[in-house]
UniProtKB/TrEMBL annotation:
One of its GO terms (molecular function) is DNA binding. Residues 29-87 form the RNA polymerase sigma-70 region domain. Gene3D superfamilies: 1.10.1740.10, Winged helix-like DNA-binding domain superfamily/Winged helix DNA-binding domain. Belongs to the sigma-70 factor family. ECF subfamily. Residues 129-175 form the RNA polymerase sigma factor 70 region 4 type domain. InterPro entries: RNA_pol_sigma-70-like, RNA_pol_sigma-70_dom, RNA_pol_sigma70_r2, RNA_pol_sigma70_r4_t2, RNA_pol_sigma_r2, RNA_pol_sigma_r3/r4-like, WH-like_DNA-bd_sf. GO terms for biological process: DNA-templated transcription initiation. This is RNA polymerase sigma factor. SUPFAM superfamilies: Sigma2 domain of RNA polymerase sigma factors (SSF88946), Sigma3 and sigma4 domains of RNA polymerase sigma factors (SSF88659).
Amino acid sequence: MEIEEAIAKAKKNDQKAFNFLLDNFWDYVYGFQLKRIENENDAEDITIQTFSKAFDKIEKYDEKYSFKTWLITISKNIHIDLLRKEKSSINSKITNHDDDTVYQVIDESPSPEDKLIKEQNLATLLRDIKKLKPHYQEVINLRYFQELSYTEISKELGEPMNNVKVKLLRAKKLLAEIIKR
């Protein structure tokens, strides 16, 4: 299958075309992010987000541009958005009064109310996860609750790693749709 053909099929929601594109461009996008941020986990997360966003918006892809370039642009934008979120979430402020430096540090330990809300949110999330098909439930459980790596999940399920990545992408997308409802 050629890239152009795969893109055309992906625009028609062909799963094999998505797998083909993921197989062909995963290393390129992952390598690009790994050079930028020098952290394997973050690079992998951004790469997953890149493909998820690209596949969600595949119908907007313009063939006059290189598919690789389009993916890298999406990847860069996701990374920039993450950096902006990190900058805006800095909680400590430094003020200067008469040569005395005062640090205002926010107590980040959860209050009893926060703990209760977290437990309720977890219960709601688990209920929503149970609405997914069993193979999607399993891959989410392995990745986020048992915290297995993609390699470990691949061995556990007896499936190629790229299938695990795509399955996880689709599971997260379906779960997001369930949560929005």
